C-alpha cells in the first residue's frame, strides 16, 4: 500500500493554486454561461432593438416626421445690401440662423450653429465663405457643406421666400441622416 491519498478528478498533488485552477469550475455555471447562451442573448437583444425602431421607420415612411414650419419674416430686402448678412432665430428662439445676401445677389440662409460644437458661424464677405472661428471650421457658402476644419456635417438649410421686398423663412432642411 502506498501513502498517497486519493485525489479527486483533475487534482494534482500540490498545494499550489496555479496548478489546481480547476477548483473554481462548476459544471452548472459552465452549462449556464457558455458561448451558445451568449449568442442567443445577443441575437435576442438585436431582434428586440430592431423591433423597437419599427414605429419610427413607419412614421418616417408615412411622412409624419416632417415638421411644419411657420412663415416668418426675416428682413426687408432693402435692409440687407449685397455682401452682407443678418442674424435671426428660426424655427424657434433657440435656433440661431444667418440670412446672407451674396455679392452676386443670391439669397441664402442657414442655421448658424456649427454642427461641431454649436459655436456661432459667421459670414465673411471678403472671402465669400462661412466661418466657425472656434475651431477654424469653414463651410461652402452655396451649399453649407463643411470644407475644412473639424465640422463633419453641413449647416441646416433655411428655405426662404422673397415677396414684396420681404424675405421670409418658410422651412428648414436638415440634409444629413
Defining traits:
single chain, 177 residues, alpha+beta, 4-stranded antiparallel β-sheet, 3-stranded antiparallel β-sheet, elongated
- Percent range of helical residues: 10-25%
The largest β sheet comes out as: 4 strands, antiparallel
Instruction: Give the helix/strand class.
Output: alpha+beta
Count of runs of 4 or more consecutive helical residues: 3
Form type: elongated
3D architecture notes:
By secondary structure, the protein is α+β, with helices and mostly antiparallel strands. Helix content is 18%, strand content 28%. Strands 5-6-7-8 form a four-stranded antiparallel beta sheet, with no helix packed on it. A hairpin with a 6-residue loop joins strand 2 (84-89) and strand 3 (96-101).
Write the layout of secondary structure elements.
Blueprint: H1 27-32, H2 35-52, H3 54-61, E1 72-76, E2 84-89, E3 96-101, E4 107-111, E5 122-124, E6 129-132, E7 137-139, E8 146-148, E9 157-163, E10 166-173
Nutshell version of this structure?
It contains three helices and ten strands.
Amino acid at each position: 500500500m502506498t501513502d498517497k491519498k486519493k485525489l479527486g478528478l483533475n487534482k494534482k498533488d500540490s498545494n499550489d493554486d496555479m496548478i489546481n485552477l480547476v477548483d473554481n469550475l462548476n459544471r452548472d455555471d459552465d452549462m449556464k454561461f457558455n458561448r451558445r447562451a451568449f449568442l442567443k442573448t445577443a441575437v435576442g437583444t438585436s431582434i428586440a432593438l430592431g423591433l423597437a425602431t419599427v414605429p419610427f421607420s413607419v412614421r418616417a415612411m408615412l411622412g409624419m416626421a416632417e415638421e411644419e414650419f411657420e412663415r416668418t419674416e426675416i428682413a426687408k430686402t432693402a435692409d440687407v445690401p449685397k455682401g452682407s448678412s443678418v442674424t435671426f432665430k428660426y424655427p424657434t428662439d433657440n435656433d440661431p440662423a444667418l440670412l446672407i445676401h451674396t455679392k452676386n445677389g443670391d439669397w441664402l440662409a442657414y442655421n448658424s450653429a456649427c454642427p461641431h460644437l454649436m459655436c456661432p458661424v459667421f459670414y465673411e464677405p471678403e472671402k465669400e465663405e462661412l466661418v466657425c472661428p472656434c475651431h477654424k471650421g469653414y463651410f461652402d457658402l452655396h451649399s453649407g457643406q463643411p470644407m475644412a476644419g473639424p465640422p463633419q456635417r453641413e449647416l441646416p438649410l433655411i428655405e426662404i421666400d422673397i415677396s414684396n421686398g420681404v424675405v421670409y423663412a418658410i422651412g428648414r432642411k436638415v440634409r444629413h441622416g
